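dumping this here so i dont lose it
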């Protein structure tokens, strides 16, 4: 039986957002999340650096898109619990009028997000599920912050590996974007030489609120469809990319 606290949060089942929060040094996690993270760290001690590099990739990609590509609207799907250097904060370094809509399907993540963003006129948090892309897109537009006729950067950072087969949904999102838009993806990759450790991690997530599906770099690139991939080294150091490659791969693609 699950163990629910007075706020209705199931604290006995490890939760992907809270495992990640713990790995990043956050405080929004419970014993089950810390135990799951401990098992992942035992199999892949590099995971802690991996999540930091994932955040570095996200921050650098957003900075590049705002400063060099003129993007002023961001939709961050699978936003996670608020941490440091969130998308809107990075975008605001370039333009305080840049708009960000955060989307997550975890109601607790949404409560935290709304608390953090209360009163911020250029930022919103909506509850939505990437498996229903039209609904996510409609909700993002309903905030009044996203003009669907203008280029937008959609982030799917460390989310797609929680979904079994999201190719159709991601293709739908690509279709809905205006030309000149961008898609930012990071994803857990297959570690061929670490098959046993990867199985351990899969086992940990199978007991959490979501399983995990690591993919090959080619399978991850397939999410970009016919988008033109940017050269990652224009916004993140080759050294950081090399270290990130131990656990995952990321890319930024432009819709022509
Ligand atoms: C590991 S966190 C990543 C947070 C942030 N994007 C980052 O990379 O720092 C993954 C987030 O994706 C969310 N998520 C998982 N499946 C989702 C879905 N189908 N739709 C929307 N959000 C989802 C989880 O609730 C969690 O908050």
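and the seq i came up w/
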């Amino acid at each position: 039986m699950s163990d629910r606290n007075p706020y209705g949060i199931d604290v006995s089942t490890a939760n992907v957002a809270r495992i990640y929060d713990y790995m990043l040094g956050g405080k929004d996690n419970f014993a089950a999340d810390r135990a799951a993270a401990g098992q992942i760290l035992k199999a892949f001690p590099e995971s802690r650096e991996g999540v930091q590099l994932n955040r570095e990739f996200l921050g650098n990609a957003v900075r590049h898109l705002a400063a060099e590509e003129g993007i002023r609207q961001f939709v961050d799907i699978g936003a996670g619990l608020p941490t440091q250097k969130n998308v809107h904060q990075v975008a605001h370094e370039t333009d305080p009028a840049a708009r960000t809509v955060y989307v997550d399907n975890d109601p607790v993540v949404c409560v935290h997000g709304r608390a953090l963003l209360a009163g911020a006129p250029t930022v919103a948090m909506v509850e939505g599920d990437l498996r229903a892309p039209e609904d996510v897109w409609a909700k993002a537009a309903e905030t009044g912050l996203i003009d669907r006729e203008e280029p937008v950067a959609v982030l799917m950072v460390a989310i797609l590996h929680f979904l079994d087969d999201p190719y159709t949904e991601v293709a739908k999102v690509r279709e809905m974007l205006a030309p000149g838009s961008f898609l930012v993806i990071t994803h857990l990759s297959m570690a061929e030489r670490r098959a046993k450790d990867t199985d351990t991690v899969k086992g940990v997530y199978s007991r959490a609120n979501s399983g995990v599906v690591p993919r090959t770099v080619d399978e991850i690139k397939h999410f970009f469809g016919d988008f033109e991939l940017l050269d990652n080294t224009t916004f993140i150091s080759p050294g950081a990319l090399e270290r990130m490659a131990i656990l995952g791969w990321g890319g930024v693609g432009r819709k022509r």
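The first strand starts at residue 73 and ends at 77.
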